[in-house]
Amino acid sequence: MSTNKFVTFEIFRYDPEKDKEPYYQTYKVEIRRPGMLLLEGLNQVKWELDPTLSFRRSCREGVCGSDGLNVNGVNMLSCMTKIEDLGTDHIVIQPLPGMRVIRDLVTDVDDFFQKFITVKPYLIRKSPAPDKEFYQSPEDRKLLDGLYECILCGCCSSSCPSYWADEKYLGPNAFLRAYRYLIDSRDEGAEDRLPILNDKHGVWRCHTIYNCVEACPKQLNPTKAIVGIRRMLLERGY
Amino acid sequence: MVEDNELNFTGVCKIKYKGCKMPRKDLVTYPKKVSYKKHTGMTAWLLHRISGVILGLYLLLHIFGKAGYADWFGALTGNAIARIIVLVAFVYHAFNGFRIVLIDFSNGAEKEVFSKQFMVVVLLTIVVTIIGAIPLFS
Amino acid sequence: MIKGYKYNGHGDSGLFEWLLQRVSGVILIVVIAVHFFSMIKSGEWGLKSIVLGPLFALGIFHTLNGFKAITDDYVKSTIWRAIILAIYWIVGVTAAVLALKVVSGL
């Protein structure tokens, strides 16, 4: 008989069809193995304690980006966070801030994805395509490190006070993705993208608060991308 | 400029959104048990705002006061504590503002760099405030 | 279907304000430091027009542009924003006129 440790999960609950007001519900979650992930705790709640709890998860290994959550006031992926790393027994789990809540921990990421699409996150070619593949030197490829790894979990944008304040603000994620294509040696779409970013709801709205950098589960740096875009805009004289 | 949301939610979702008490606009009133953690950058930003408001009001009232339209203001800022507050606000705002400029025109956007830079800002603020405060009290 | 929003960068993009906010900020650091630290003593340097001129001009801009940024963040209603922005303009112009009066009176 093992003496297992318990932690409390205080989870945001809201079902618009039943509840008038959101509320927080507390669950006791058993730590069943060292290094237990937050997602395992949530699954325990869902499977054993309360099947009405809703949350997103899919690949459970930090690739799909479905399970961005606000845990103890910081945005993170539940599948990449060990409960013991949080350093507390009382864990408050809220949906990502700055997004509409559909139910419980499920947020509406529609606006987020639309902003992502807005910056044209794909290669734009104007010159005719070569016979074989596009050539890219290893040095040029290196520039994309720290930009292409984004999994679109929404942790960065929803951690940003500017994003909370301004409904139309594109958000750190859109800038990171735009910059990934702007500095790609194969891409020729800078003229298409930069006017979109040069907007009062665009890069100039960033107050360099770094919440996005702190929140990113992939250790990417959207602030650096924003700085890069600003430099591009200044150099090109927009 | 953004045009209205062109994307139409599917029918089921649309009904749900109408019932939802928390549209995107009312985010501020969203009931939070734990507010977002104040990381270094966010602390720096909040302090920058607060000190900025203090300095801005001070500058405007200072001009009005010197022009003879707000005599009470001269009396208010005559005491040492008010002066110290303005001094701290200015010194912090200056150094942190310089740090913000460095973010864009140097490599201040690196994660390791900016937290160190913020510590330097805090240290410099303390040191320069003390240096500036000595003549105020002597 | 995801279509994306329509953004089209325009004259009101904020680039100019952003740049001027930084330039004026750096100049203000120098000018205010001179003004403040010289006023503690004799105030000889702090009242020269080469110090006071940029201090007032850039200071008023930097202040009100900063206030505008804060308003944009916390005031949701477009109408209120416009009203507050108008107030900033009135305050700014008044302060500039008074500043001219102060400088010329010295």
From TrEMBL, chain A:
Species of the source: Calditerrivibrio nitroreducens
Keyword list, A-Z: 2Fe-2S, 3Fe-4S, 4Fe-4S, Electron transport, Iron, Iron-sulfur, Metal-binding, Oxidoreductase, Transport, Tricarboxylic acid cycle
GO biological process: respiratory electron transport chain; tricarboxylic acid cycle
Cofactor: [2Fe-2S] cluster; [3Fe-4S] cluster; [4Fe-4S] cluster
Domain 4Fe-4S ferredoxin-type residue range list: 140-170
Alphabetical list of InterPro entries matching this protein: 2Fe-2S_ferredoxin-like_sf, 4Fe4S_Fe-S-bd, 4Fe4S_Fe_S_CS, Beta-grasp_dom_sf, Helical_ferredxn, SDH/FRD_Iron-Sulfur, Succ_DH/fum_Rdtase_Fe-S, Succ_DH/fum_Rdtase_N
Catalytic activity: a quinone + succinate = fumarate + a quinol
UniProt lineage: Bacteria, Pseudomonadati, Deferribacterota, Deferribacteres, Deferribacterales
Pathway: Carbohydrate metabolism; tricarboxylic acid cycle; fumarate from succinate (bacterial route): step 1/1
Transmembrane segments: none
NCBIfam families cross-referenced by the UniProt entry: dhsB, PRK05950.1
The EC number(s) this enzyme carries: 1.3.5.1
Family to which this protein belongs: Belongs to the succinate dehydrogenase/fumarate reductase iron-sulfur protein family.
SUPFAM superfamilies cross-referenced by the UniProt entry: 2Fe-2S ferredoxin-like (SSF54292), alpha-helical ferredoxin (SSF46548)
GO MF annotations in UniProt: 2 iron, 2 sulfur cluster binding; 3 iron, 4 sulfur cluster binding; 4 iron, 4 sulfur cluster binding; electron transfer activity; metal ion binding; succinate dehydrogenase (quinone) activity
Protein name: Succinate dehydrogenase iron-sulfur subunit
Gene3D superfamilies (UniProt xref): 3.10.20.30, Alpha-helical ferredoxin (1.10.1060.10)
From TrEMBL, chain C:
Name of the molecule in the record: Succinate dehydrogenase
Membrane-traversing stretches: 20-38, 50-67, 79-100
One Gene Ontology term, aspect cellular component: membrane
Keyword Transit peptide: no
UniProt keyword Metal-binding, yes or no: no
Entry keywords, A to Z: Membrane, Transmembrane, Transmembrane helix
InterPro entries: SQR/QFR_C/D
